[in-house]
Amino acid sequence: MQKYVKLTGCMFKKGSKLYSIFNGKCPKCHEGNFFKYRFTFNPSKITKLHDNCPKCNFKYMIEPSFFYGAMYINYGITVAISVITFLIAKVIYDLELLPSFLIVLFSLIVLAPINLRLARILWINMFVNYKKEEEN
User: Per the structure, how many domains does the chain have?
Assistant: First the structure.
């Protein structure tokens, strides 16, 4: 049991991809914030990024239209949420078809800001690895 706790503790430490993803940090230095604004439901601020990392000056837009690929990640997250929500509504709560779809629609609208941010930070973490400060 203690090994399991020790391993899960390592997964979220600085230097791991999960640290960058769940804390919204630069994928290269894990110091600077990835997004300009903290979590918000304001549509104009949801996906605003810094041009460069405030700490290591890493350029987030690696190439033109880099974050278009995050649409595929967002699509996968949306499909997963839709299927899970529908199964919970239909199987566990035994709701009719229309109420089940309305619950799916509501959950997608509520979770859209989280999905957009998560898709972008997952996408960049697929291509950028952590480097210690002395290596930067």
Answer: 1
